[in-house]
């Protein structure tokens, strides 16, 4: 509809393949290839090995995976609860603008600054949390709550208000309207917010690196430590572990969403 | 009176959506709120349902003031334009929604749902989800859901607007049948389509610019519209400026005898099918004398199947066009022909000029 | 996703709600106030004693310049590449174009440092291209950011382009317009709001980007977020880190506010 000739299309597609392949896809392919390479001294990796992966799944590194999963579930899912709560309660009230602005704050500000803020605020009374895992969980909660709020808020705006009105006219109390109509209809959006939160939380590095205690080192922090020590191949293997875990989690949440959307 | 609106006024921000509406609907009566979009008819319905809160005035149901009650406490059946069937609930659960909200015993809910689905002919679809239904079927479910709670009042907001023309005609028949099934319920029917209003309503309330213009039994409103707006909106009447003369009124130089103009009445109202066209005896329009009616010229002819819709200009009235419906079995004048427009006095009425 | 999260245009409804229900909005707002607003206020307070020293340092000035430089270059790159890719997916579709579009969606949720990590293998001194010097230059950061943030431009563009009636392009072509003219005169005017939305979001995110810069670890490439980390964590100079954080907040929020206003105005005019 834009390019009509066969050769013209071929050229455009070739250019697309080159740009998309080299610029967007290649980095991810390279990381995956490096995870399984014993060495990489030419165009192609050599000495295929699973040693890096084995290393990435043992000892401290395995502990990091567990820490990341716990943080993602605790922080991410709390974020979904509070984000959805915020979006639902602020809709149609005069607090909508204020709630929008406050929830946008953590994404508009660099994550490093969010981390610095938590560090400054919670290294003192009345809330002394520095040095515990909770400061990491809070950092993730704060960052992901913004995304959850945005996703659910956008979905709410797309839902016709007459559903809630009709439900009320049929005698349903506000609580019943919320549980039986609004929440079920928002379920796909909430599930997708959960997927997004967990995925972003798994890969979060900026705020985490500011606040994490030695006892609570997430996967991205471990990966950074590895690259910093020059162990790039193990770092790549651990990045693959991170990617795989994230994809599996998102797929599971996506299935939930699919099931919710089907009904 | 089952429903009583008294001076109901609704503001959205600074815009006034409904201004001082007074209207009553009796049990067993169907009242249509008819008007163009933005006329306030849907707002009036929402005020009855409790979806909007009036800034002034009272809403009463069976004599009780419900103005400050939330929708959930009013017990009114509502069918909205896009039906708003809950997409995550099956047909039966949609119909059961209000009964479950009222915590009715399970057996009673099942019985009532079965009853309602049977009434609207949807028993076979009880286990389906709304998205598996056609528009007409969704509408039946929406009506069953609204009636399941045995409301004294049923509000229908443009229930046929989302359907295509054929289905709309069928559903109009269904709604007439439904009316007979629930003889004691007061029905408020919001529509912009005059044919729906005429087919279903006992009384029609014509609305315009957030105000009620006229309210009267449908036949009366059609036969003798009190205002120019009602005349043209309901049935597309022709409106011709007149001046009173001895023994009648004068239209474009032609006297229609026997019409008595009350003060302020300056428009003659006549339906398109009531005008008779005659070939002009004096081509070129040479004066009013000897004519059977008002002189004019044919501007266009559209065949509409059962009749031809002829558009004419009127000699001496610049900018006025008259619509005449000529039955298909009559001869139709050519475009450009000079004709006489015969206005039978029994089909004419005089209305107030209200800026329309 | 992020685009929605930052979406402009809250619809303010006049639908009245029973009084008293607004109290439910307080707990989530309180949460944000305690966990975000209060810490940021403390950051501003803590920064007070260190302003003069930090502002005067060349380290700070060059980092500020670098940050803006990298963000602007990256955003420009993303806009060019993203527009090209989105146009091909939308208007010169090939088998599998939808899969590619889906892939773009997924990439938004992946961590940015993966790109930087891969660069060590591609451009590292022993890697594929053996362009060791490049890896430590600001251009490596720009390239990595273009790679990572291009999907953020593509997503709103693809959405806008899918809403554009195909018939418009066909009619333009039937009137004798070549592909460039169709793009310039039919497609671009329609998708300009999406381009602006995606571009401004990308600018904001690249100003704030930290993971890529951290992982590339380029000596000569210090940005403001990087400086916050160095001062705060490596040098334990909290007040100094706070000053930079405040500057960064002002930069990000100021830009964000300006863009929201610009976009909001545009939206209003379009309606």
From TrEMBL, chain A:
Source domain of life: Bacteria
Keywords from the named record: Cell inner membrane, Cell membrane, Membrane, Transmembrane, Transmembrane helix, Transport
Coiled coil: none
InterPro entries: MetI-like, MetI-like_sf
GO BP, sorted A to Z: transmembrane transport
SUPFAM superfamilies: MetI-like
Chain ranges passing through the membrane: 12-37, 72-91, 103-122, 134-156, 186-212, 232-253
Localization terms from the record: Cell inner membrane; Cell membrane
Main location: membrane
Membrane-topology descriptor: Multi-pass membrane protein
Record-annotated ABC transmembrane type-1 domain positions: 65-253
PROSITE patterns: ABC_TM1 (PS50928)
Pfam family, one: BPD_transp_1
Listed GO CC annotations: plasma membrane
Similarity-based family: Belongs to the binding-protein-dependent transport system permease family.
Protein name: ABC transporter permease subunit
TrEMBL record, chain B:
Keywords: ATP-binding, Nucleotide-binding, Transport
GO CC, alphabetical: ATP-binding cassette (ABC) transporter complex
Gene3D superfamilies, sorted: P-loop containing nucleotide triphosphate hydrolases (3.40.50.300)
The EC number(s) this enzyme carries: 7.6.2.9
Pfam families reported for this sequence: ABC_tran, TOBE_2
InterPro entries per record: AAA+_ATPase, ABC_SmlMolc_Importer, ABC_transporter-like_ATP-bd, ABC_transporter-like_CS, Mo/tungstate-bd_C_term_dom, P-loop_NTPase, Transp-assoc_OB_typ2
Top EC group: translocase
SMART domains: AAA
Span of domain ABC transporter: 3-234
Name assigned to this protein: ABC-type quaternary amine transporter
UniProtKB/TrEMBL annotation, chain C:
Membrane-related topology note: Multi-pass membrane protein
Domain of life of the organism encoding this protein: Bacteria
Residues annotated as transmembrane: 22-45, 70-92, 99-124, 136-158, 194-218, 238-259
GO cellular component: plasma membrane
Cross-referenced SUPFAM superfamilies: MetI-like
Presence of the UniProt keyword Transmembrane helix in the record: yes
PANTHER family: INNER MEMBRANE ABC TRANSPORTER PERMEASE PROTEIN YDCV
Name listed for the protein in its UniProt record: 2-aminoethylphosphonate ABC transporter permease subunit
Species the sequence originates in: Kribbella soli
Species lineage: Bacteria, Bacillati, Actinomycetota, Actinomycetes, Propionibacteriales
């Amino acid at each position: 509809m834009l390019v009509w000739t066969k050769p013209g299309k071929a050229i455009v597609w070739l250019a697309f393949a080159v740009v998309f392949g080299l610029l967007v896809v290649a980095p991810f392919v390279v990381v995956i290839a490096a995870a399984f390479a014993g060495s990489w001294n030419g165009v192609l990796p050599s000495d295929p090995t699973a040693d890096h992966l084995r290393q990435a799944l043992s000892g401290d590194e395995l502990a990091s995976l567990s820490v990341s999963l716990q943080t993602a579930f605790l922080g991410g899912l709390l974020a979904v609860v509070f984000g959805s709560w915020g979006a639902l309660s602020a809709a149609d009230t005069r607090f909508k603008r204020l709630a929008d602005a406050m929830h946008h704050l953590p994404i508009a500000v660099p994550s490093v600054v969010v981390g610095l803020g938590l560090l400054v605020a919670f290294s003192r009374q009345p809330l002394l949390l520095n040095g515990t895992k909770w400061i990491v969980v809070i950092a993730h909660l704060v960052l992901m709550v913004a995304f959850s709020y945005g996703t659910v808020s956008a979905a709410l705006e797309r839902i016709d208000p007459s559903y809630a009105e009709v439900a009320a006219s049929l005698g349903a109390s506000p609580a019943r309207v919320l549980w039986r109509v609004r929440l079920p209809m928002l379920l796909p959006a909430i599930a997708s917010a959960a997927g997004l939160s967990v995925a972003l939380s798994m890969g979060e590095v900026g705020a985490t690196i500011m606040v994490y205690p030695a006892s609570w080192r997430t996967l991205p922090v471990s990966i950074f430590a590895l690259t910093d020590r020059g162990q790039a191949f193990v770092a790549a293997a651990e990045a693959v572990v991170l990617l795989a875990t994230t994809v599996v989690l998102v797929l599971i949440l996506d299935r939930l969403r699919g099931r919710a959307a089907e009904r | 009176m089952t429903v009583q609106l008294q001076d109901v006024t609704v503001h959205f921000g600074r815009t006034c959506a409904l201004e001082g509406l007074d209207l009553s609907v009796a049990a067993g009566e169907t009242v249509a709120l008819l008007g163009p979009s933005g006329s306030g008819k849907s707002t009036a319905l929402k005020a009855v349902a409790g979806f909007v809160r009036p800034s002034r005035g009272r809403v009463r149901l069976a004599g009780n003031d419900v103005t400050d009650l939330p929708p959930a406490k009013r017990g009114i059946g509502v069918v909205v334009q896009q039906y708003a069937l809950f997409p995550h609930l099956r047909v039966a659960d949609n119909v059961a929604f209000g009964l479950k909200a009222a915590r009715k015993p399970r057996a009673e809910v099942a019985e009532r749902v079965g009853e309602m689905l049977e009434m609207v002919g949807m028993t076979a679809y009880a286990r389906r989800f709304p998205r598996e239904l056609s528009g007409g079927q969704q509408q039946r479910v929406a009506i069953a859901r609204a009636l399941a709670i045995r409301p004294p009042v049923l509000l229908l907001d443009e229930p046929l607007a989302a359907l295509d023309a054929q289905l709309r005609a069928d559903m109009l028949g269904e709604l007439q049948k439904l009316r007979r099934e629930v003889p004691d319920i007061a029905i408020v029917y919001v529509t912009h389509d005059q044919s729906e209003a005429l087919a279903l309503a006992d009384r029609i309330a014509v609305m315009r610019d957030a105000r009620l213009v006229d309210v009267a039994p449908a036949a009366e409103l059609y036969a003798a519209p009190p205002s120019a707006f009602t005349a043209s909106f309901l049935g597309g009447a022709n409106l011709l400026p007149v001046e009173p003369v001895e023994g009648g009124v004068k239209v474009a130089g032609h006297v229609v005898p026997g019409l008595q103009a009350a003060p302020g009445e300056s428009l003659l109202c006549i339906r398109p099918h009531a005008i008779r066209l005659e070939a002009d005896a004096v081509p070129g329009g040479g004066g009013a004398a000897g004519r059977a009616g008002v002189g004019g010229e044919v501007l266009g002819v559209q065949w509409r199947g059962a009749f031809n819709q002829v558009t004419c200009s009127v000699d001496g009235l610049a900018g006025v066009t008259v619509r005449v419906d000529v039955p298909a079995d009559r001869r139709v004048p050519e475009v450009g022909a000079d004709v006489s427009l015969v206005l039978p006095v029994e089909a004419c009425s005089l209305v107030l000029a209200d800026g329309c | 996703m992020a685009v929605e999260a930052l979406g402009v245009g809250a619809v303010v409804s006049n639908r009245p709600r029973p009084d008293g229900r607004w109290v439910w909005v307080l707990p989530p707002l309180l949460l944000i106030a305690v966990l975000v607003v209060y810490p940021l206020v403390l950051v501003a307070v803590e920064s007070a004693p260190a302003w003069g020293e930090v502002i005067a340092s060349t380290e700070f000035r060059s980092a500020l310049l670098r940050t803006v430089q990298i963000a602007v270059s990256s955003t420009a790159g993303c806009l060019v590449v993203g527009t090209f890719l989105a146009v091909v997916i939308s208007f010169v579709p090939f088998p599998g174009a939808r899969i590619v579009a889906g892939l773009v969606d997924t990439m938004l949720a992946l961590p940015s440092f993966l790109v930087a990590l891969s660069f060590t293998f591609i451009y590292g001194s022993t890697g594929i291209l053996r362009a060791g010097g490049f890896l430590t230059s600001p251009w490596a950061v720009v390239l990595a950011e273009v790679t990572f943030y291009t999907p953020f431009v593509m997503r709103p563009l693809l959405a806008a382009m899918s809403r554009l009636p195909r018939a418009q392009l066909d009619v333009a072509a039937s009137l004798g317009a070549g592909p460039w003219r169709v793009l310039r005169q039919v497609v671009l005017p329609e998708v300009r709001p999406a381009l602006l939305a995606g571009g401004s979001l990308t600018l904001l995110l690249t100003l704030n980007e930290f993971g890529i810069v951290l992982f590339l670890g380029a000596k000569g490439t210090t940005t403001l977020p990087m400086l916050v980390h160095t001062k705060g964590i490596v040098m334990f100079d909290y007040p100094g880190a706070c000053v930079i954080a405040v500057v960064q907040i002002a930069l990000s929020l100021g830009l964000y506010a300006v863009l929201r206003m610009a976009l909001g105005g545009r939206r209003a005019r379009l309606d």
